[in-house]
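Input/output pair, single chain:
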Amino acid sequence: MPNHLYLIAVPSDKDGLRETVAYAHRRYTGYINARLRATGHSRACDNRKQRGGRWAAKNGLKMSKK
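Output:
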């Protein structure tokens, strides 16, 4: 699938993977915002959450708000 990224990583400490993914997400969001001259978080995240919520509702799953 050309629109997917698979990450194989071994963290050096218990927060290493979380910090690395968070850093990559911030950089990607900054790149997209600069390209679109926008501010805030990535619109891709909003769209993914909406699609996930629709999928969950369609398949009888309850979403929790955290």
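Residues 16-58 form one domain. The radius of gyration is 15 Å.
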